[in-house]
């Protein structure tokens, strides 16, 4: 593909990414893969270059762009090599017209920038939400140890005891250690939130929002595969990804529990008052994951934010019924918004006087509202809020 054709391809893909974000459809990565599936003429270098253009353009725009072309024009404003490629030649985008408006720059749609600002995320901290994420792995302590595991490339040790960092796009999934279940891909911040659970062998631990089991696997490793680990979710497709991952990782204690939304308590009846720990890795706005999914900013609406914060407070109250006296609840969101972090946790403590907040001894993050907040700027991780409370 010519450089001009790559720009035109990026514009067409962005049109689809924008439409998909508006209707709550497939994420950008899938849109890109699908686009190339029917364009076999594109080689691997073309794919990489077009993908880079698409992601750079997404990062350059704040609010949802009207069109892919407007998004690319925004990117072109900061990259002198791009405007000449709008030359109208075969497969190239049409020439830029006088007065043609690029999409708006910014961190996010305005309402969301304001919510971030109220939560103390402005300037550099806000800009860092759109930086490029590295690739972090967790060495699976059930099968290996960071200190002795030989890997094709030496990573940078992270604060999390089994964490290693690599440049983005390192093909770790092709490594023998990955196939052997000795390593998992997991953001360093996510690994730190698992430390807050402090899950131990022999305990009963409920992972209330297990999804595909990223944290479940880390908890099983921390428990040395001893005890009871109940991985729950309301999304059948996500939960079904756990079994093959658990098998590869050698995890034998995780049992899955599919719940009906709004009827979670019924499914959890056998565990009421039995849990030593309940992890709530709650559904959230995902504002902490924009480094990887910049189009997440364009999917979020105020109504969706209100919906997920409602689920968060409901699950927090449900967790109180699940823990035994002395048991602990760990609340996690991959968000930097206080309404999904410090504010949510403070309101929970006020509603539940028998729950007492605990100070976390993780040497990272900024103390906020009884918990810790990790951010791309200060911690080099995805954005997370994590807090722990114990039932008196
Ligand atoms: C942040 S994701 C979990 C990620 C997962 N723990 C991991 O580490 O890979 C949030 C999960 O909450 C689930 N969820 C949404 N509503 C729920 C509910 N009412 N009860 C339990 N889980 C819910 C979603 O399906 C999603 O899988």
Task: Describe the 3D structure.
The protein is an alpha/beta fold. It folds into three domains: 3-106; 135-185; 196-391, 3-Layer(aba) Sandwich (Rossmann fold). Helix content is 39%, strand content 17%. The strands form two sheets. Strands 5, 6, 7, 8, 9, 10, 11, 12 and 13 form a nine-stranded mixed sheet that branches. A hairpin with a 2-residue loop joins strand 11 (366-368) and strand 12. Helix 1 packs across helix 3 and helix 3 (44-60) packs across helix 4 (68-77). The model has no long low-confidence stretch (mean pLDDT 97). Residues 208-212, 214-215, 232-235, 238, 259, 261, 264, 281, 283, 311, 315 line the site of S-adenosylmethionine. GO terms for molecular function: RNA binding; RNA methyltransferase activity. One of its GO terms (biological process) is RNA methylation. Pfam families: Methyltr_RsmB-F. The active site is at 334 (nucleophile). This is RsmB/NOP family class I SAM-dependent RNA methyltransferase.
List the helices and strands and how they pair.
Elements: H1 3-23, H2 28-37, H3 44-60, H4 68-77, H5 110-118, H6 123-127, E1 135-139, E2 156-157, E3 163-166, H7 176-179, E4 183-185, H8 188-197, E5 204-207, H9 214-222, E6 228-233, H10 236-240, H11 242-249, E7 254-258, H12 264-267, E8 275-281, H13 296-299, H14 302-322, E9 323-333, H15 342-351, E10 355-358, E11 366-368, E12 371-374, H16 376-379, E13 384-391
Parallel strand pairs: 5-6, 5-8, 6-7, 8-9
Antiparallel strand pairs: 1-3, 1-4, 2-3, 9-13, 10-13, 11-12, 12-13
Helix pairs in contact: 1-2, 1-3, 1-4, 3-4, 8-9
The structure holds S-adenosylmethionine.
S-adenosylmethionine is lined by residues 208-212, 214-215, 232-235, 238, 259, 261, 264, 281, 283, 311, 315.
Binding site for S-adenosyl-L-methionine: 233, 281
InterPro entries: MeTrfase_RsmB-F_NOP2_cat, MeTrfase_RsmB-F_NOP2_dom, RCMT, SAM-dependent_MTases_sf
Active site: 334
